[in-house]
From TrEMBL, chain A:
Pfam families: FGE-sulfatase. Keywords: Oxidoreductase. The gene is egtB. This is Hercynine oxygenase. It is an enzyme of class 1 (oxidoreductase). Gene3D superfamilies: paralog of FGE (formylglycine-generating enzyme). It comes from Flavobacterium panici.
From TrEMBL, chain B:
Its cofactor is Cu(+); Cu(2+); FAD. It is an enzyme of class 1 (oxidoreductase). Keywords: Copper, FAD, Flavoprotein, Heme, Iron, Metal-binding, Nitrate assimilation, Oxidoreductase, Periplasm, Repeat. It comes from the Bacteria. It is found in: Periplasm. Pathway: Nitrogen metabolism; nitrate reduction (denitrification); dinitrogen from nitrate: step 2/4. Belongs to the multicopper oxidase family. GO terms for molecular function: copper ion binding; electron transfer activity; heme binding; nitrite reductase (NO-forming) activity. Residues 376-464 form the Cytochrome c domain. InterPro entries: Cu-oxidase-like_N, Cu-oxidase_2nd, Cupredoxin, Cyt_c-like_dom, Cyt_c-like_dom_sf, Cytochrome_c-type_DH, NO2-reductase_Cu. Its EC number is 1.7.2.1. This is Copper-containing nitrite reductase. It catalyses: nitric oxide + Fe(III)-[cytochrome c] + H2O = Fe(II)-[cytochrome c] + nitrite + 2 H(+).
């Protein structure tokens, strides 16, 4: 009996490790940074340690989610949760057509992305978390002032149809996370918390009611146009929107449950 | 007492004068309130890609115009062998031309193609309202925004994208023109065209091959590699020339998208009969060069009295001959010797002095030259000819009588290809005899690579009745 328990414990430990790898999350250690937007002053924001998916969610993964939650399929999803472009490239409810299983799932609404993460016992990352993890290049935590890093991000805007690529083909960053840049845009929980009026020139003025982060725009590196674009993109979204270049990945504040 | 009287008389006169000025100016600016014009009927707005413009409004009443414009981010050609990712309104740079009349109500449907990566919006300078429409039109990829406005000020206006970072969106080609015609329309003319200048910033220098990414640093420093009409080098040359017949009146709707440079717009060999200064209501007459600010426009018209090729330039002239800001208007018809005798050198601009000058040499890249067939050389050479040679030697190699010798059926050229190579490499000054005529002028040494010289000479030798010599980079290198 003792022996059996020992074996069982051993087995559980072993599977625990395996699952941890399968779960595929990386630990992002706590730290402070000054985001381009969002900080009401120049003061850096503090980001607690959290776990972030190593890769964006893929077509295959999303398909298995839909099989378990058919209300989130193309034909069944409620209109308030997703607009008509939801999974527009999928052939039908349970077939992602000619897309690769390992390509990121895109054309999903915020509601669907959020639900997916919840079903995994996870959540969407906050914008600050996402930006914090995304400012790392392969070697440093904050590469935002590096010219090559910004050029790399900017050059992505000029490559078309990168959503057809498979996950994990861009660089692995300092935290061990892939595809933060160069593959698809990604949803965040509070994507619309920064109010960009759409008249971006106005947003740059010191009109603090419109846009409380204006001070930080002036303070942060204005050459960080790469980030500018992300905020502008998020500003154009609504939660039921889905676009072909927009995917997501999940985060977790605690170690993923399966691993405990 | 007398003094006091004097003062009061003076005061009175001053008041009178002031009153007259005020009254006068009031009278001048007495304008119709176009906000009250009622619209009758509805139609879909006609949109055109440059250099064409939609039909004039003529006598039609103010209407409700439905306008569909799609934003596309797409790869295009900047110049031969150079690709660029353009962001476009309607698939062209500049974007589709919009033609309205004062009082029209425009229902604007702005669509962002699903494959696009970025949100966009539109600021139309013809719109009275916050952001010129930009505040109401931020649209995510795969979505559509609808807003409407009434055009209440006649004139020629630009529109552009105003999404962060604004400069980058404009630098990638997101601009175009919207015309608001006065009641009854602009006076009819024979030909109308749409030309818009823009400056582009690429990571490689002018002519560097391949897909060239946008260079933010150059844009901030305002040092463009390309300054072009209608989005690319050669959009109005090499078979895409604007055309007219002798005796016709040509109207050009000219805009400047910027993002940075101000244009000194000039047509070599023509004088604008009328210029709607800055695209507004004031008409200036007999203008040589009109200034078009970034984010501004002008309407110019002129009657073409003589046949020939008239060259559209930004008269900040290095932009024309070295960065691409050059277009052509080909006029066909009978010579009119009273107006142009054939000996006047009107408009030929020779920036160099009386001695041979050198172009800076460092720019010739040391990259390996690919093997090319004669056909490839001719194709590439034609492009080089179009930007480097034709301003003097003319599009068909005919030259300019008594000034620039012809290259077509040229005995001087066909007699010695080594001499031709040396001429491009080192320049040429002094008297030469070509086809029995004497020329005494200066040609500066050209800053071209061995490969480029080989290509352009092969093109010249294989055109216009020359002896079909093929020049190779090795031949050029031996003489450098």
């Amino acid at each position: 009996m003792k022996k059996f328990i020992f074996i069982l414990t051993f087995f559980l430990m072993f599977t625990g490790v395996t699952i941890a790898q399968e779960i595929g999350m990386a630990l992002i250690k706590e730290g402070r940074f000054v985001p381009l937007y969002g900080a009401s002053s120049k003061k850096p924001v503090f980001v607690n340690s959290f776990y972030l998916d190593i890769y964006p969610v893929t077509n295959a993964e999303f398909l298995s989610f839909i099989k378990k939650n058919p209300t989130y399929s193309k034909s069944k999803i409620k209109g308030i949760f997703a607009d008509k472009t939801y999974l527009s490239y999928w052939k039908n409810d349970f077939d992602f057509g000619s897309s690769k299983p390992n390509s990121p799932v895109t054309a999903v609404s915020w509601f669907a992305a959020k639900k997916y993460c919840e079903c995994q016992g996870k959540r969407l990352p906050t914008m600050d978390e996402w930006e914090y993890a995304a400012m790392a290049d392969a070697k440093t935590v904050d590469a935002r002032t590096k010219k090559e890093f910004n050029n790399y991000i900017l050059s992505w805007y000029e490559k078309s149809k990168t959503y057809e690529n498979e996950v994990g083909k861009t660089f692995k960053n300092y935290w061990g996370v892939y595809d933060m840049h160069g593959l698809v845009w990604e949803w965040t929980t509070d994507f619309n918390s920064i109010f960009l009026s759409g008249e971006s020139r106005k947003d740059k003025s010191s009109d603090k009611n419109l846009f409380c982060g204006s001070a930080s725009v002036n303070a942060s590196d204005l050459m960080d146009y790469a980030a500018f674009m992300r905020y502008a993109f998020r500003g154009s979204l609504k939660a039921q929107y889905s676009t072909r270049n927009l995917g997501f990945r999940c985060a977790s504040s605690t170690k993923p449950k399966v691993n405990l | 007492m007398k003094k006091k009287n004097d003062i009061s008389i003076k005061m009175n006169m001053l008041l009178c004068l002031l009153f007259t000025i005020l009254l006068g100016s009031c009278k001048k600016e007495e304008s119709v309130n176009y906000t009250d014009i009622m619209t009758e009927g509805e139609m879909n707005a006609e949109l055109t890609a440059p250099p064409m413009v939609p039909k004039p409004v003529g006598n039609r009443t103010a209407m409700k115009l439905k306008l569909n414009m799609e934003i596309k981010e797409q790869e295009g050609t900047m110049t031969d062998g150079v690709k660029y990712t353009y962001w476009t309104f309607g698939g062209s740079v500049p974007g589709s031309f919009i033609r309205t009349r004062v009082g029209d109500e425009v229902e604007f449907h702005l669509k962002n193609h699903p494959d696009n990566k970025l949100p966009h919006n539109i600021d139309l300078h013809a719109v009275t309202g916050p952001g010129g429409g930009a505040t109401s039109s931020l649209v995510a990829p795969g979505h559509e925004k609808v807003f409407s406005f009434k055009v209440i000020n006649p004139g020629l206006y630009i529109y552009h994208c105003a999404t962060a970072p604004v400069g980058m969106h404009i630098a990638n080609g997101m601009y175009g023109l919207i015309l608001v015609e006065p009641e009854g329309g602009l006076p009819p003319v024979d030909k109308e065209y749409y030309v818009m200048q823009g400056d582009f910033y690429t990571q490689g220098e002018y002519g560097a091959k391949g897909l060239q990414p946008f260079d933010m640093n150059k844009a901030v420093k305002e040092t463009p590699d390309y300054v072009v009409f209608n989005g690319k080098v050669g959009s109005l040359t090499n078979g895409n020339e604007l055309t007219a017949k002798v005796g016709e009146t040509v109207r050009l709707f000219v805009g400047n998208g910027g993002p940075n440079l101000v244009s000194s717009f000039h047509v070599i060999g023509e004088i604008f009969d009328h210029v709607h200064v800055e695209g507004g209501t004031v008409i200036n007459k007999n203008v040589q060069t009109t200034l078009i600010p970034a984010g501004g426009a002008a309407i110019v018209d002129f009657k073409v009295e003589t046949p020939g090729t008239f060259i559209l330039v930004d008269h900040s002239i290095f932009r024309a001959f070295n960065k691409g800001a050059l277009g052509m208007l080909k006029v066909e018809g009978k010579e009119n010797k009273n107006i142009y005798s054939g000996t006047i050198q009107e408009g030929i601009y020779l920036p160099e002095g009386g001695t041979i000058q050198k172009m800076p040499e460092n720019a010739t890249a040391k990259t390996a030259t690919p093997k090319r067939t004669a056909e490839e050389r001719i194709k590439i050479g034609k492009q080089i000819f179009g930007t480097t040679c034709f301003a003097c030697h003319q599009s068909e190699g005919q030259g300019i009588p008594n000034t620039f010798p012809p290259l077509a059926k040229s005995d001087y050229l066909n007699a010695d290809s080594k001499r031709a190579i040396k001429t491009i490499l080192h320049g040429l000054t002094g008297e030469v005899s070509v086809n029995g005529k004497k020329y005494n002028n200066v040609m500066p040494a050209q800053n071209l690579s061995d490969d480029e010289i080989a290509n352009v000479l092969t093109y010249i030798y294989n055109s216009w009745g020359n002896n079909k010599t093929e020049v190779t980079p090795e031949m050029v290198k031996a003489l450098r």
